[in-house]
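Holo prediction — zinc ion.
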Amino acid sequence: MALSSSKRRSRYRVLAVSDKVEPRIYGPHIRHIVGDIHFIASCGDLPYYYLDYIVSSLDVPFFYVHGNHDRPEHRADKSILYEPRGGVNLHKTIRHFDGLLLAGLEGSHRYNNNPRYQYTQSEMWMLALSLIPGLLLNRIVYGRYLDVLITHSPPYGIHDGRDRPHIGFRALLALMRWFRPSYLLHGHQHVYSTKEITQTRYFDTEIINVYPYRILDLVFSEP
Ligand SMILES: [Zn+2]
């Protein structure tokens, strides 16, 4: 975590992506469609070539967490890409970016034996608790704990599903109650109908399902 005196802006424009390659932005008009943004946030389950295209086209900072379907990607030159290029993996990490306090937690609820990016509720509790020292330090240094939490899965009972892979995490509810981030951005839960709820207020947090992409104005009332 970089300690910086830069002040939080009142508004950040963000491209948030998740779960599905969206032809509208995976094409030559991406800059026109997205416009000026401060940063890109990926909530996971996206091929690295797609993220690479977005990041190199828009040329702004890029923060991400992994989704349960993320795998190493075999490139045409026979190299293997283990992480998206040009970005910061926010998992279990707190970052200070342009006055904004960011943190992330990857993965989904565990549903098979794949070793990566799946967690039981208890494991996610441990990951969430590991953020607490950094969040407390934020409070001392910046006067607040956290601005934006970026996750793959939704919180338990909010935008989540009832099948095992799509049950949300209870620890995310606690993080929001205790540390009051202004936003939680997530993916994982695909949206097939305009009737599905994709934005929910929980205490002081706007929870937004960004599937498959959203251009968001993150607004902050106080500096
Ligand atoms: Zn997923």
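READOUT: DSSP finds five helices and 15 strands in the chain.
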